[in-house]
Amino acid sequence: MTLRVVVVNGSPNEPSKTMGLVDVVLATLDGMMPIEVARIDVYRLGPGFTGAVERDDVTPEVESELRLAEEADLLVAAAPVFRGSYPGMFKHFFDLVEQYALAGKPVLLAATGGGEHHALMLEHALRPLFGFFQALTVPVAIFASAGDFDGTLLLNPRVHGRVELALADVADLLRARATSPAPS
């Protein structure tokens, strides 16, 4: 079975350290199981997204991206730290996601920031956001600071180890789901 992984990228930059971290996550996961990856860049969704106040206001293209995230087997929520939290465009994307669409869905949290003091954004901003959706956030979240990179290439072996630890949780969770009987 191929795992449908959807990355919601909250970084306004291209290329970015955030996606450099996600690239390591995806390469590691691809070494563990077959995956099919789709990426949603919230800063590139255009006026059909930024001008939407409610889900009914989005263009068909944005609706397709929202459904892609809602129907993923694994959601990777990745964002840079911006003023102590995630960027507003990242939050706006999730403001448009159906309230129960992510219930029980595995979500891997990843963030990048200027220094280690930004790491708590994962626990104080991202995890509560997905708690609202009743998503199943992976216990180990992944953070990398600016000093962990050469440009957008993640170099720090400690962060690589954290990626492996988080993905071991993901693999265990997905194996447990695959072997449990489907609800009737």
UniProtKB/TrEMBL annotation:
InterPro entries: Flavoprotein-like_sf, FMN_Rdtase-like_dom, NAD(P)H-dep_FMN_reductase
Alphabetic keyword roster: Flavoprotein, FMN, Oxidoreductase
One Pfam family from the record: FMN_red
Name of the molecule in the record: NAD(P)H-dependent oxidoreductase
Domain NADPH-dependent FMN reductase-like: 4-146
